[in-house]
Amino acid sequence: MIEMFFHKVYGATPDVVVHAPGRVNLIGEHTDYNEGFVLPAAIDRSIDFAGRMRADRVVQVHSLDFDASVEFNLDDIQKDSKNTWSNYVRGVSKYLEEDGYRLSGADMVFGGDVPREAGLSSSAAVEVGTAAFWKALLRLELDPVYLVKLARKAENQFVGVPCGIMDQFISALGREHHALFLDCRDLSYRHVPLRDDVKIVVCNSGVKRALAQSEYEVRLKQCRQAVAQIASTGRAVQSLRDVTPADLESARSALSDILYRRARHVVSENHRVLEAVKVLGAGDLERFGELMNASHESLRDDYEVSSKELDVLVEVARKQPGVLGARMTGAGFGGCTVNLVRQEAAEDFAEAVCRGYHDALGLRAETYICKASQGALSI
Ligand code: GLA
After folding, report:
1. What angle do CA 73, 77, 83 make, to 5 degrees?
2. Which of ligand 1's atoms lies nearest the C-alpha of 119?
């Protein structure tokens, strides 16, 4: 497909093609920037890149989704305030150059089927895809985790969105039929097999994540404040990762109600991830589903990042036969839910959730029955 589009735009066949998947997070939400644990999976929806080298220092990029082209020079990479979709490509290219990798000019097209602003990490896929593109085009020997960090830096510093590392990590290092258990403190990770008698069903509320960025920043600050206040009670804590439930209870009087609840979400969510990985290994999917449900409640009530639409999707989902667990996924304030559903019930489940959501709110949801897939830089 992408080869064909490249041919359409440039009238030639590309030298390289790479695919970077979107992701869904099974459990471990708003824990990554607290040095905690996450359990995402890469999905079978991707942003695809095709390209060829040029003899000069010009990079020409065509976005299929925006049906627009931009051009930039590798010697002077600036942010583009008009074609903001190109900043992910620019940022990654700039930081590779800054790290001493001399890139060459290139003609590139990219596009795919990860919906934008839906909480499925289309921007991380563009960043990781760009990194994978340069790696393939120039045959660079680059460590995938180095590229993951560079992709996140592009999002944090060049684009200016203060995300954690989960999305870039899973887009790069996902594995077919597996989720990825990641420790966001030391970046050690392990692939955890997913059984194929259950399906991951993603329900897209269709509501763009309007408040996501500003509220995300507020949560980030609240977590830092909670850590500072817990530390002031004499506990040696660097991040909420270090806080045990017992620590939190004994520091409770030092925290405002809001900071206490924010911290309680993160502390309890880290425990849920650890248990989820254990029960997944033991094949106890019922318990895994209960943990997903508890995660949603905690995000809704303590962390307050859910929305009416996400809550309705979850409520409707939990009434359907074959569902094991349902929760919002990603940053929140719109976007998607993730549901674990017995394979034989998955199709009916997807239909019933769309119907129930429409009946309750008059809105149209989209559903994707996903397969856990290979990352762009998986070895
Ligand atoms: C967004 C961010 C991630 C992570 C999630 C919440 O997807 O990009 O780093 O913080 O929100 O878990």
Report:
1. 95
2. 7
